[in-house]
Amino acid sequence: MKNRISWRVATVSSARWETASARTLVLDVPDWPGHLPGQHIDVRLTAEDGYTAQRSYSIASAWTPAPSATGAGSAGAPGTVELTIQRLDDGEVSPYLTDVVEPGDQIELRGPVGGWFVWREKQTAPVLLIAGGSGIVPLMAMIRARGEARGRQPFRLIYSVRTPEDAAYADELRLRVRENPGLDVHFVYTRKAPDGWPTPPKRIDVAAINSHGWPPDFQPDCYVCGPTSFVETAADILVALGHDPKRIRTERFGGA
Amino acid sequence: MEIDGNALAGDLSEVFATDATVAVFTCAGCGHAGAVATLRVWGPAPGAVGRCPSCTDVILRLVRTPSRLILTLTGATRLELPLDA
Asked: Which CDD domains did the record assign (chain A) (predicted)?
């Protein structure tokens, strides 16, 4: 079987909380072949009775062939992969990965997989990233990859969160806006905005995407990731504003 | 839970030699063409059902048993895979 992507065993080398309910696992993966930002891995858990549950998670880290001495935040070292997992309280797999797994534990994974919702350094167009909640994860991998490669492609991120406390990677994003020229980040707060924020909390809308995205004339590559209803709203707005549907890539995950 | 065809990449990699989520399907029901990654998928379950994002007809079914992987593609008249992914 050529090119067959097989399951392998990774070891959790460290873990950190990004928000109160989202945790990053740093995994050591033997013979990791590298990945593109936006790709996923499948995680498989097997119970003692043989029951298995499998889920697909976006990779949060950028992959660099050699260790980076100057990376802002976490670029990932060769052979390591970072996943940021949002706990779904009624979930079968995520609560285990956020609340039970500890450094030293082993988990079974397959990947990297998926070649559609990815960004490649050779893409020269401006990029618009639109994240709803934990949809930030694959988009963060793209921001990190651009930062590590010192890419010059203009990047804009619109990141919708319920409250400031729900924003993952907030400190790193602030740092990267300063240190990665050509990166802009705009937050949309849907339930509670920070003190002094110019607009009351609201869902993502035409005004937010029109003001903080790129004009359609720039022919940006657009990546939208989040819950289904969010992705549909944002993608519909992009099309209505005149963006080419062929340049809009989406990745959606479950509802509540 | 509703997801999309991106999440099928791992299982499809056990069937196809190249990444099948970038392949373009043509819907047998409405003629819509799009990347497998854009299929609407309901799961996780013992089997994944991928529906056309345009007309919601079933394009593919992917069922995993302990010893077999069964891919049903009756909803697609065509599947076009890039040779150089």
From this structure: FNR_iron_sulfur_binding_3
B36 SS3 class: helix
What is the ipTM metric for this complex? 0.91
A67-90 residue pLDDT tens: 544 443 444 556 899 999 999 988
**Average of per-residue pLDDT values in chain A:** 91
pLDDT of residue A69: 46
Stated pTM of the model: 0.93
> Which one of B4, B6, B24, B36 would you mutate to disrupt binding with A, by most A Cβ within 10 Å of its Cβ?
B6
Residue B74, C-beta contacts closer than 8 angstroms, at least 6 positions apart: B28, B58
Token pair listed for A121: 């350094």
> What's the gap in Å between the CA of B41 and the closest CA on chain A?
9
- Please report residues of A whose CB lies closer than 8 A to that of B5: 116
Domain count, chain B: 1
**Contact present, B25 and B38 (Cβ < 8 Å):** no
Residues 6 or more apart whose Cβ sits within 8 Å of residue B72: B60, B61, B62, B63
Q: Which domain holds residue B33?
A: 5-80
Best CA proximity match to A128, nearest among A12, A228, A23, A224: A224
What does the pLDDT read at residue A65?
Answer: 67
Token digits of residue A93? 């797999």
Cα distances (Å, whole numbers) of residue A64 to A78, B56, B82: 6, 40, 26
Burial of A4 (0-12, 13-18, 19+ CB in 10 A): exposed
Enumerate residues 6+ apart whose C-beta is below 8 A from B4: A250, A251, A252, B37, B38, B39, B40, B41
Domains, chain A: 7-113 (2.40.30.10), 127-253 (3.40.50.80)
Residue B85 covered by a domain: no
